[in-house]
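Tutorial handout. Part one gives the primary structure; part two gives the three-dimensional structure as tokens.
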Amino acid sequence: MKNLLSSSITLALLLSANAHAQDTAAADRGKPTATTLDNVIVTGTRAPKAVDRIPGAVSIISLQEVNNSLSLTEDATAVLTRTIPGYSESTQALTNSGETLRGRIALRLFDGIPQTSPLRETNRAGSFTDLSVIGRIEVVNGPSAAEGVGAAGGIINYISKTPEEGSHTSVNTRYSSQGRDDSEGWKVGLTFGHKEDAYDLLLATSFVDRGMAYDAKGRKIGMRGSGTINDSESKNLFLKLGTNFGESDMQRLQATISRFNLTGKGNYTGIEGDRAHNITSTSIAGTPLGAKTEFNDFNQFSLSYSHADFFGGTLLADVYRADQAMRYPAENGSDKQDPLFAPLGQLVDQSEVNSEKRGLRTSWTRGELFGVEGLELRAGVDVVKDLTDQRLALTHRVWVPPMEYKSTAPYAQLSWDIGPLTVSGGLRQEDGDLSVDSYTTTYYNKRVFVEGGKLSYKTDLPNVGVVYRFTDTLSAYASYSEGFSLPNVGIPLRNINKPGQSVSGILDLQAIIVKNKEVGFNWRTGNATFSGSYYRSASDFGVSLSTDPVTGDFVMNRGPVKINGIEFSGSYDFSDDLKLNAMYSHIVGKTWFTKDGPLNKRMGANDVSPDKIGVNLYWRVAEQVDLNLGAMTLLSRTLNQGKSGAEHTSGRTLLDLSVNYDTGRFGKLTLGVENLFNKQYILTTSEASNSNDDWMAGRGRMFSLSHNINF
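Part two.
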């Protein structure tokens, strides 16, 4: 491992390359990443701030990077895998089970609004809108309480596009195929933006039809147990309307509506594989079990108000409503059986999660506080109400009872620029209550009655950090921060099988407090950037995942978790026409085998990604032609630690290619080739699983042809 680590670091140093947003911002440099440190502004922390004033690893995924990923695949999380060092391999499915950021679950936001419930982590929050709506993605790496519950691994904030002056219309079309009739997919999208005087409007809509996916051997890929994007359709509608008013247009009111639906077409049914003989899960034409197909249905509305001179500071306030519903594929597993509905072994059912969120987010930022140069205060309060339940949709049984979480979280943050030194610190208080109705568990869990009740969660979450700018080209930082998450509450609730239990007495419902320590540096010159960070995060009562050998469902294990990691990233511009980016990530997670035992169990790929190396080459071949060649390597890893902890992931290198040709008045044509050399491989999370049903191969080579024209 030392030799491997050393060689990987050497590679990163030699390449001097990356897509790490702390050092880049391609908008001004013509790069497919981001520009210089002084010009990058991060809004994911609400108050806009230059990146070199933030004591932590912040990554910006630019519009060009989003578009490059869309030219290869419609997978919503693939762009994170390609650009964020600590983000694990994409599952290439509707489910995001096993996709983590620095070994922990990240909080996904869409324009600051949570896309998942803190009560029932559905692993479906990666598909909530069409990425053609997104103007940039901001990633705060590591635990953070800045945006509320759920950011144990960090924050991923998808930020919608902003209309430019005048009227602009963009029409996007895409055709994809793996060379077989039923693998064909297509997309059509329309975006209209208008900005004039104090008013602006952004309207975007799209329709995507996806075919069946094949592996490199020409074998249909299976229908994943928690949901697949293959053989599906999605519809998206996004509307954002804003107006500036008041003296010098210092006030703004903005309304946003987003409606997204992805639904399976139901043309295939899954066939489980045989991992002992390396026969992967596949699909055959036919009606799936049950009568309903899976879906993701995300609808949200927000109303935002800002005032640039409110008592000498800037006031931001957002009120929102977000309704999210997810239906999972039908199954006839043992945990779905009930002799009241059908003979044992013959009952087919499927689960459905519904979540309703109402919230208010506020912040007030005042610079030059008390007349002190460089001293800034940011303060506010967040209020949220989340109601979530999970049912077995075909038999209308309660699987997880209605759970309501109410939280009020005031916070304050100070930062002070003292010459080349920035010192920051703050405190957020999470004050929440979880209420659960009384219920009876399913037949599989012995139909025991569970008394409902209320649990209170109240904790203070501090953070402190320093950034020192040695020169205009070199800075370093150190920080300590805490993140707050609820466990996946629905899992322990539905798995209770002993009588006499009450919600208030379930130990596994205790909160997850993650403490993170990090040091890092950023270096940049006119044509090169390089950054690195080392972090240690620990939770005394954390979460790791394993798979139930009977049901195939994830089992939540509570206990101490410690994660250490290093990241390197950078970029080098050989010329305006030739640029190189690279990144490297190494993560080690440990927990215990048995309660109160030593932390000597290495966490597997369901939690912690194997080492990752990413390289991307941008080359402007001619005035109208440019290409991106990307290589992503996951290194092999073997965990020899007894039967319960053994795991081997084989590792792989995949290449992707996209070529753009700008015709001028007739728009831009893009040819995308995913998995360029048609490599056969098993997905990392499948290698970590012990289920035959989840022995999944990754996609083979796929060709895409996209056209974009602007008016």
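Part three, for discussion. The CA atoms of residues 8 and 584 lie 7 Å apart. The helical segments are 2-15, 26-29, 63-70, 78-83, 490-494, 684-688.
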